[in-house]
Design goal:
mainly beta, 22-stranded antiparallel β-barrel, 7 helices
């Protein structure tokens, strides 16, 4: 394997980069008429010559920005040739089948896909995503390996970007904004992401500084395009965590096409590896379809639909968490009664129509409806012992609690129901004029939320009920008898019928030009949104925000391939329903939009190392935020204060090196530095809940040189610890402790039995199978203990509150079978 070689490459990147020239690359595999790889094919372009290896693989460097001819010759096969024109550092994949009967000729002109790079957008190969190991495999799993994208919860598909929280990220599928359930408070409740990896064609992601055409969020945008199939196909995947089936269908006249995916997931394998012993019976399932109709040469229609049902049945039994130090080890032992029964049903439908008015003018109409029905019911009694651990080796009670410093119990109760309906109507236009591109859009959104929240927590310690610290009247026992009511430690009860009407619009101008001998790109745009919150017993208020944004990029005519980007913009985030609801469950309609002024300076450096293409992307960023709505994070549940009483800043540096560390594969190394602090009510700056200081990640793909069908996929993430939060009703300024560092390595091994390089199977029942592989995955390879939050338990003797870490999953093994027709 080439693991050590790839890890060392980051050290030598600047040395290897000096050999860069203005070149492009063509690579691929040569097959014969039986789909078997051909060794010894001579590949020639001008004065550059190479040969295919024993697996038929080749790679050749060619001059860029000019037409050149590549010739393929072999002693027993007819000659083949291809005329290409590629931009500098473009990589063109050509898998060629040669025969012994006739010569082949062709031409390919590639104009260079620098547009996304100029916009600061990262693109991914959809095929590679399927094989990257992770407890929640998929696109979000890969995003978490990028610098600036952080998550300390492998059971969740949610992520924070450059100091933002989970609610600050935009997600689009086929230009249609998608949503996630509201009430989910734990990663193990999430189940399935909306995005079905089996249906994906293009993946684009921006970690900040994105253009005005995207929506009103402050942190990131993930833009997914589903596949438009051209022939029948199917993909099947089964593992110990569930399974999926995707089918491509095309009509005979090619006017109709559809892709449909069905998924099922069961997280029992992962949840059962946690410290809390449970009876866990979840069912996460969905069906999704994308139907396309080509009505004419100019008019196209498409429908995107999704039905998802997540049932979460959870019955905790026991838990013991050891913490403290070697000299003073302690443990928390908990015994549970009761259960939790949650249900999340979501329905989504969207109709999109594209009309090509002319070769340079396109109109799009999009209408969508999202409906979610959610319930969260639980009654759980937890009886705990907090004490010192018996560390005497050989003792019958070794590892058990020998002396109790705290004994108590607590009851958690909830009866929460939510019914939300979100409807959107949008009209978009795009006009190309010479070197200019003008884009605009208008959108109306209607959000109707019916919400009932009723939850409370009672804490009993040593036989008496603990009142919340803010309860009135003040308790002066034993000097005066207490006359107040007996109230729970936490109590939230509210019924909200809330409607939000939004109108938003954007316009932007882009241009590519020449400045001296350099290529330059400009983008100027602006967004606006007006909204009104209405409902029972609410004072209606109409608010409007305006968000100008600008991008500039320049590519100097240097020997070294450099691109410089500069982005500045205002990003307003008008409040969604969750941001309007305060800690007591009451909707505050006057909450303002959170505002962020973003500045991004970036450099893309493309070079050649080991005769293969690489790219080093460096981005520095700064955000100044006002009108912030302070919040707390408990697992993946965010609770807002519904009060714009804070300011904050974010500063950081992201570095990513990607390329072919191993020939024919794409891998990358990421490093991120981030610092974010907030000032609440002018009390001074403290760390925000998302203050993830350092991040290192490695995504590596490899194969055995002698057995290329045996592949390795490595997913490594290291994050420094997040702030650990504070007990209920406590001042966060008094609790600035941090969780331990998050360290996780997931590794997957895949044996490919059938694919394009290996050829089709001779077995009759596998004749139609194009790909067949069996994978073995190890999640959390080194069995690291990673914590997501703290449970706060008080010592009845010293009145000290201990932060007991809630650990995530341990080492887990998984088997996965993949097949494509």
């Amino acid at each position: 394997m080439n693991i050590f070689k790839s890890l060392c490459c980051f050290i030598f990147v600047w040395i290897g980069s000096n050999s860069f020239a203005q070149t492009a690359f063509v690579k691929g595999v040569i097959f014969d008429q039986k789909n078997l790889p051909v060794e010894g094919v001579n590949v020639n372009c001008l004065n550059n010559t190479t040969q295919t290896n024993e697996k038929g693989f080749y790679q050749i460097a060619i001059p860029s920005d000019q037409k050149v001819t590549i010739a393929f010759t072999h002693i027993s096969l007819k000659k083949a040739s291809l005329t290409v024109s590629l931009k500098s550092n473009e990589v063109y994949l050509l898998n060629l089948q040669m025969n012994d009967q006739e010569e082949q000729m062709g031409e390919v002109i590639i104009n260079g896909n620098t547009k996304k790079t100029v916009q600061g957008i990262i693109t991914f190969e959809a095929e590679d995503i399927r094989f990257i190991p992770g407890a929640n495999a998929g696109i979000e799993n890969v995003l978490k390996t990028l610098p600036g994208v952080n998550s300390n919860n492998e059971l969740s598909t949610q992520y924070s970007v450059r100091g933002g929280n989970y609610d600050e990220n935009l997600v689009y599928v086929n230009e249609i904004e998608v949503y996630r359930p509201f009430l989910i408070r734990s990663g193990q409740q999430e189940g399935l992401s909306f995005i079905n990896t089996d249906l994906v064609q293009n993946i684009e992601f921006s970690a900040g500084g994105f253009q005005a055409k995207y929506g009103d969020k402050m942190s990131s945008v993930l833009d997914i395009t589903y596949r438009n199939p051209t022939k029948f196909g199917a993909a099947l995947e089964m593992s110990l965590l569930g399974g999926s089936l995707a089918v491509d269908a095309v009509s005979k006249d090619k006017k109709w096409s559809a892709i449909t995916g069905i998924r099922y997931r069961n997280n029992s394998l992962l949840v059962n590896s946690q410290e809390t012993q449970t009876n866990y019976t979840p069912t996460f399932a969905d069906i999704q379809t994308n139907v396309n109709y080509q009505a004419s040469a100019k008019w196209q229609w498409s429908f995107l639909g999704n039905i998802s049902q997540n049932k979460y049945l959870y019955q905790p039994l026991t838990r013991q968490t050891n913490f403290g130090t070697v000299d003073a080890p302690m443990a928390l032992a908990v015994y549970y009664e009761g259960k939790e029964k949650d249900k999340y049903d979501t329905y989504f439908g969207a109709l999109k129509s594209t009309y090509q008015v002319s070769d340079t003018f396109t109109l799009k109409f999009i209408g969508s409806v999202f409906h979610t029905l959610e319930q969260e019911y639980f009654d759980i009694l937890a009886q705990y012992r907090l004490g010192e651990v018996d560390t005497n080796i050989g003792s019958d009670t070794y590892g058990d609690i020998a002396f109790s410093r705290g004994i108590g119990s607590q009851i958690n109760h909830a009866r929460n129901d939510l019914d939300a309906l979100i409807a959107n109507l949008e009209l978009k236009g795009l006009k190309n004029w010479k070197q200019n591109q003008i884009e605009w859009g208008v959108k109306y959104t209607k959000e109707s939320i019916h919400d009932r929240i009723s939850e409370w927590e009672v804490i009993d310690s040593a036989g008496f009920s603990i009142r919340p610290p803010i309860v009135l009247p003040k308790n002066n026992e034993p000097y005066l008898p207490y006359a107040g009511l007996l109230v729970p430690y936490q109590y939230v009860s509210a019924i909200n019928f809330t409607d939000i009407n939004r109108f938003s619009a954007y316009a932007q101008w882009s241009r590519k030009d020449i400045l001296g001998s350099s290529e330059v790109w400009y983008n100027l745009g602006a967004r606006m949104q007006s909204w009104e919150v209405t409902g029972d017993n609410l004072d209606n208020k109409f608010q409007t925000v305006f968000s100008p944004r600008a991008q500039f990029a320049i590519k100097p005519d240097w020997k070294k391939e450099m691109l410089f980007r500069f982005t500045i913009g205002v990003y307003n985030q008008p409040p969604f329903y969750r941001e309007l609801r305060d800690f007591s469950g009451v909707v505050q309609p006057n909450v303002k939009a959170q505002k962020s002024i973003n500045l991004v300076i970036a450099n893309d450096y493309s070079f050649k190392m080991w005769e293969r293409p690489f790219k080093l992307v460096t981005e520095g960023y700064y955000k100044k935020m006002t009108n912030l709505n302070p919040y707390t994070v408990d697992n993946v549940r965010i609770r807002y204060a519904a009060n714009n009483n804070a300011i904050a800043y974010v500063q950081g540096l992201d570095v990513r090196l990607n390329g072919e560390f191993v020939p024919g594969t794409d891998s990358w190394i990421s490093f991120g530095y981030l610092k974010t602090e907030e000032n609440i009510d002018n009390k001074g700056y403290i760390s925000r809940p998302t203050d993830q200081r350092l991040k290192f990640a490695l995504l590596f793909q490899d194969y055995m040189p002698n057995i290329p069908s045996l592949k390795l996929y490595l997913n490594l993430v290291y994050n420094t610890g997040l702030p650990g939060g504070s007990p209920s009703y406590s001042d966060p300024y008094l609790y600035q402790n941090r969780l331990n560092d998050y360290r996780r390595v997931d590794v997957g091994f895949s044996k490919v039995f059938i694919d394009q390089k290996i050829g089709m199977s001779n077995m009759k029942f596998l004749k139609s199978v194009k790909e067949l592989s069996l994978g073995f995955e190890i999640f959390n390879l080194f069995n690291n203990q990673n914590a997501i939050t703290n449970t706060w338990v008080r010592d009845v003797y010293t009145k000290t509150e201990y932060a007991i870490p809630n650990y995530m999953t341990t080492r887990v093994f998984n088997l996965k079978l993949s097949m494509r027709l």
